[in-house]
Structure formats: structure tokens, C-alpha cells
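STRUCTURE REQUEST FORM
Protein name: Phospho-2-dehydro-3-deoxyheptonate aldolase
Source organism: Streptomyces montanisoli
Requested output: C-alpha cells
Priority: standard
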Amino acid sequence: MTVNAEKPVTSVPTWKGLPAAQQPEYPDQDALRAVVAELEACPPLVFAGECDQLRSRMAAVAKGEAFLLQGGDCAEAFDAVSAEHIRAKLKTLLQMSAVLTYAASVPVVKVGRIAGQYSKPRSKNTETRDGVTLPSYRGDSVNGFSFDEASRVPDPTRLTRMYHASSSTLNLVRAFTTGGYADLRQVHAWNQDFVKSSPAGQRYEQLAREIDNALGFMKACGTDPAEFRAVEFYSSHEALLLDYESALTRTDSRTGTLYDTSAHLVWIGERTRQLDGAHIEFASRIRNPIGIKLGPNTTVDEALGYIDRLDPEREPGRLTFVVRMGADKVRDKLPELVEKVTASGATVAWVTDPMHGNTFEAASGHKTRRFDDVLDEVKGFFEVHKGLGTHPGGIHVELTGDDVTECVGGGDEIFVDDLHQRYETACDPRLNRSQSLDLAFLVAEMYRDQ
Ligand SMILES: O=C[C@H](O)[C@H](O)COP(=O)(O)O
Ligand SMILES: C=C(OP(=O)(O)O)C(=O)O
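Status: completed
Returned output:
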């Protein structure tokens, strides 16, 4: 593979100077400049050729030939960069992917919200506790989670920590996914710690036995494909902090075009998708596959505007619309967007994020989501596509491999009164492993029925 994308951008980027929402206000601009210069000299985290490969995989998703599974933490944390946490997340995604591939008979494109998901847009600039008001926590890349004045000051050196945390995470992910751990013949091993304790684990075990039998049969017939020994796994995060993303944006010497080498795929969030803003301009200049989150107030003109700005060549795989409207709105709001986008001639990938439109605050003060609402939004998304004859291309979920109690419901039910037991997210509530597997089984059924 030709791997360049190494030359720093020399001219002033076109997105600098445009209004950029949700950026930290650094008190020390000299310190920021020094950090940016340091990052500009750092090696890329991913290669342009890998981004191109993911774009071609996303083209299959857009054309109805594959399904996207994108998942990981709401907010990665520096102190969670450990083999244990990374393995648990990966294991959950591999199990979900095995369920979807086998039970829905569809190739699954696997993308983690991982190795860079350290920055959070917030609804409010400040947080008040017991009469004390401080700047909101905006992710480990910006400030500290701890509720004290010093922690909450935006610190640009955290950008360097984000780079190094992303780099070590990606290194381990590459080792796990290509070094034997993700070999399909390990399909039981991923479940070993889980099978006794969870109904989802037991259901998975049954499926793993069927996969084993199929593999045994293929081997007996003399086929033992190399594809089963490793998986293609890609990284993604929200391209929120433009100082960081710009510093990692490099010119690919094969083509002279720009790639954001901080991740294979980056997305623009619901709060920063202004058509005349810096984030969309940034996304329009890079060649990575791009996601755009679409909330319930997205207009047809906006959706068509994203296509014109980001996908002028109408290239399948370039643009993914990640719909996060809420279970109560998706059936009303999505059809018109899908119809008009399809009529425009663009082939985008449609993906559901059933998390962000279904958050509420429990009486205990915990931000949570009901598993049933998550499922209902996915169902609504599938219904809309079935009605229009278009392809429900995938799911984008906040999940963890840990046994947390952050979302209520699921087969191994979490109740509102359980939330305090293991509520560990730094921002939004994630599905735990059991809920994630439940979701994979239910999505596989929906896909088959489609
Ligand atoms: O993860 C997404 C956003 O950062 C999050 O939903 C914003 O949450 P807030 O409304 O608590 O700021
Ligand atoms: C902030 C996020 O989502 P949204 O932009 O859809 O609110 C997210 O996915 O982390």
C-alpha cells in the first residue's frame, strides 16, 4: 500500500477564520500555538490508503451490500487507556459483528468510536453544583472531569495527551485485530467470561457453536480462508477540535489531496454542522469518509447542502448520514429526508444513532437512556427504509465492554434504582456488553426481515 499523507499543510487552511462552534477558550494562546506546532511534526496516526479502503467499504454500505457497525465510548478517558478496557470494547464489537454477520448474513464494516473520541460538544457552557458554577467538562482533550476550578480550565497540552493516548490505543487495536485475537476461530473465547452470567452471553454461545460447525465444515472441505484470521477494523471520532484535526491534516503525496490522519473516518456532530461554519468547510477539504449527524430539526435543504459541499462528485462511500432523531420523531422526520436525498441522485450511507435522541435525566440525577427507546428508534429507522425501498445501512452506538449500569432495560434488566451501582461514563450513558449483544441480535432479526 502506498502510504504517504505525511506532508504538513503549508497554505492557510480555508476553514481557519470561519465561525467554529464548541471550541475551547484557551487562556494561554502561546501554549496552544506551541502544542499545535508539536502536533504538526508528529507522525500520522492512520494512512491515506487505509482511509481510501474504508471509503470503498462504506460505498458497499451505501449501495446496500454491507452493514456498518460503529461503536464505542461516548467519551474516551486518558485513564482508561489500558489493555483491559480496550480488549473489552473490542470483544463486544467483535461479538456484535459475529451476530450480525451470521444471523443477518451481511458483511459488516467494523468502525470503533475509539482512538480519538476524547472531545465533547456540550449543551451548556457551564455546570452548577451546590451553588458553584464552573465551565462544563468538554472531554479529556480539553479539561478535567473533576469538579474544581483548576481542572476545568481548558489546557492545550491535553491535545498532545490525546494524540499519544490515541496512538497507543490504535497500536493495541491493530495488534488485537491482526495478531490472532480476532481470529473467527476465537468466537467462543470472546464469550468465555460472559456465558454463565448473562442471557445474552448464553444466546451468543449457541450462535458461536453454529459458527464453529460452519468453520469445521469448511475446513473439512479443504477451505480455510485467511480472511477469518484477522479483521479489518477502523477508527473514528467526532472532528470537533479544529486545532487538533488541522494539525493532523496532511497532504497525500500520491494525489496532492488532504487527509485528516487522526482517524480513518471522522464525523461532524449535530451541534457543529452549520453549512457556513468551519467544521463543514474542514470536512469538505479532506478525503476521509465523512459522517454527519442529523438531528430531528434537519431540513431537506441542509441535507442537500451537505451533499453539494461534501460529495460534489456523488461518490458512494464518501458521505454517511447518521440519523439521531429520537424514537418519537424518526418515523415522522426521516422519510422526507431520505426521499429527497435519493431523488438528488446521491448514494449516501444511512446509519441510525439510536442513542443521542433518547437521553433523559432519571430522578436520581443520572443521565440515562431506555433500552426500549433505543430499540424503537432502530425499528423506526428500519421501517422508514423498508417503506421507501432504501437501505438501512448500519448502527452507530455508544457502548462499552464493561458491566456498567448506565442505560435502563435490556434482557439482563437494569432498573433506574441500579444506575448508581456502576455509572462510570464521563458524559453520556453507554450500553453495557449484555445490552449491546441484545441489540445486535434484535438488529440482525430486523435486517433479515427487511
Ligand atoms: O455525547 C454527546 C454530547 O456531548 C452530549 O449529549 C451533550 O450532553 P449535554 O447535553 O449534557 O451537554
Ligand atoms: C455528540 C455526539 O452526538 P451528536 O452530535 O449527535 O449529539 C456524539 O456522538 O458523541
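Reviewer notes: The chain has one domain: 45-120+159-182+230-449. The domain at 45-120+159-182+230-449 is CATH 3.20.20.70 (TIM Barrel).
Form closed.
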